[in-house]
Specification:
It is built from 15 helices and 13 strands. With 381 residues, the protein is an alpha/beta fold.
Length: 381
C-alpha cells in the first residue's frame, strides 16, 4: 500500500536544531530576551514596519490588536465569515460585535463593496483576512477606511512573505497579525506577531502584551522599575520559540521556492479538469504576490465535493476542506440570528473547496499521484 501523503509537513533541518540548542545552552527560555529582540528587529526589517512584536499566537496578536484599539461594547467590526474563529472571537472578547460579510468568489477575500454596504454609525473597524497569502483589495479597503474614519486590522496569519502592490501584507492597516503555527509557511509550533506603524498603538500594545506593565521600558533601561499601568495579558513568546522562527526566516526564500514549484505543478497538471468544467483553479489577482501557502481547487458540482475528499482519503491523500463559515456556526446563529443563506458566496466557496497537499518537501512522485488520482476520480464519474 502507498504511504500516506499528509496535507502539510514542516520543513525543519539542522538550522532549527542548532538554534534551539544554542538557546538552551544560553538559558534563553524566558520572553523578551536577546533572541526575542533579534526576531523583533528581523521582522521590522523584512516588513519595513516601525514596530513588530512577537506573540504566542496569531490569535493573541488579534486579541492584542482589538485591545490596543480599545474596541468595546457597542462597537461593530466588519469582517469575512470565511475565516478562522479567532478573527471574530478577538473582538467578541472585547464586547464588540462581528459583522459578517460576503467574499469575492475569485479570491475568497472580503468583498470591499460588501464592507461599504454594512457600515453603520457603530462601525469602528474593518478586519480583512488575506486568504492563502493573497492580499485583499487593500486600495479599496483603505479608501473606505479613510472616508469613514475606521481602523483596519489585517489578519495576515497566512500572509508572511506575501505582498500586495509590492508592499508586505500586514503593513497597510493600523495593525497586522501573523502566525507561526505548525501549519504555516514559517513555523515554531505555536507563535505569531503583531505589527504596526502607529506609535500610539505600538506603545499601548507593548504594555498590554507584557501583562499590562511597562516591563519592556524597564528592560530597555528607560525606567528604573516596572509596574502595572494598563490592562493586559501574557502574549510574549519564549526566546526558545523565537530562535526557531529566526532559523526558519533564514531559509524563507528556499521554503517559498519549493512551495511555488509544487503550487505551479498543480496549476499546470490540473488544467484539463478545469477546461472540462469539472473544477476551478486558483485565481491570483494582478496586484497580488502570493506566498504559495495553499493550493485550493473548487469542485464545480458541490454535491460531488465530499465524494472527492473521501476518495482522496481512500487513496492515502491528505486533502481537506477549509473553514465552516462563521455566520452559519451555532454560536453566531444563537447570538446574532445569522442564517446560512445570508452569505451565499461564502457558503458556495466553503461547500466546494478542496485543499490539496502542499509543503516544501512534497515529492514530484507524490504530487503526480495526487494529480492522477483526481483525474481517476472524475473520470470514474
Amino acid at each position: 500500500m502507498r504511504n500516506f501523503i499528509p496535507f502539510t509537513k514542516i520543513h525543519i533541518g539542522a538550522e532549527e536544531k542548532t538554534a534551539v540548542l544554542q538557546a538552551l545552552e544560553s538559558e534563553a527560555l524566558g520572553g523578551n530576551g536577546r533572541i526575542g529582540a533579534q526576531l523583533q528587529a528581523r521582522l521590522q526589517s523584512m516588513m519595513g514596519a516601525r514596530h513588530a512584536m512577537p506573540t504566542t499566537s496569531c490569535s493573541h496578536a488579534l486579541e492584542l490588536a482589538a485591545m490596543a484599539l480599545r474596541l468595546g461594547t457597542g462597537d461593530e467590526v466588519i469582517m469575512p465569515s470565511f475565516t478562522f474563529v479567532t478573527t471574530a472571537s478577538s473582538v467578541v472578547r472585547q464586547g464588540a460585535r462581528p459583522i459578517f460579510v460576503d467574499i469575492d468568489e475569485a479570491t475568497f477575500n472580503i468583498d470591499p463593496a460588501q464592507i461599504e454596504a454594512h457600515i453603520t454609525p457603530r462601525t469602528r473597524a474593518i478586519m480583512c483576512m488575506h486568504y492563502a497569502g493573497q492580499g485583499c483589495d487593500m486600495d479599496r479597503i483603505m479608501d473606505i477606511a479613510r472616508r469613514h474614519n475606521l481602523y483596519v486590522i489585517e489578519d495576515a496569519a497566512q500572509g508572511l512573505g506575501a505582498k500586495y502592490a509590492g508592499r508586505p501584507l500586514g503593513t497597510f492597516g493600523d495593525a497586522g497579525c501573523f502566525s507561526f503555527h505548525v501549519t504555516k509557511n514559517i513555523v515554531c509550533g505555536e507563535g505569531g506577531a503583531f505589527v504596526t506603524n502607529d506609535e500610539h498603538i505600538a506603545s499601548r500594545a507593548e504594555i498590554m502584551r507584557e501583562k499590562g506593565t511597562n516591563r519592556a521600558r524597564f528592560l530597555r533601561g528607560e525606567v528604573d522599575k516596572y509596574t502595572w499601568v494598563d490592562i493586559g495579558s501574557s502574549f510574549v513568546p519564549s526566546d526558545l520559540l523565537a530562535a526557531i522562527v529566526l532559523a526558519q526566516l533564514g531559509k524563507m526564500d528556499e521554503i517559498h521556492q519549493l512551495r511555488q514549484a509544487a503550487w505551479e505543478r498543480y496549476q499546470e497538471g490540473l488544467q484539463d479538469l478545469a477546461r472540462r468544467g469539472l473544477i476551478t483553479l486558483p485565481y491570483i489577482a494582478p496586484q497580488a504576490e502570493i506566498n504559495w501557502h495553499i493550493y485550493a481547487i473548487r469542485v464545480v458540482d458541490m454535491a460531488w465535493r465530499d465524494h472527492v475528499l473521501a476518495e482522496l482519503k481512500r487513496r492515502q491523500i491528505g486533502a481537506t476542506f477549509h473553514y465552516i463559515p462563521l455566520h452559519s456556526s451555532p454560536y453566531a446563529q444563537e447570538q446574532w440570528g445569522y442564517k446560512a443563506e445570508d452569505l451565499p458566496i461564502t457558503e458556495r466557496v466553503s461547500a466546494s473547496l478542496v485543499r490539496l497537499p502542499l509543503f516544501p518537501d512534497l515529492s514530484r512522485d507524490d504530487q503526480d499521484y495526487v494529480i492522477e488520482s483526481l483525474y481517476d476520480i472524475f473520470d470514474a464519474r
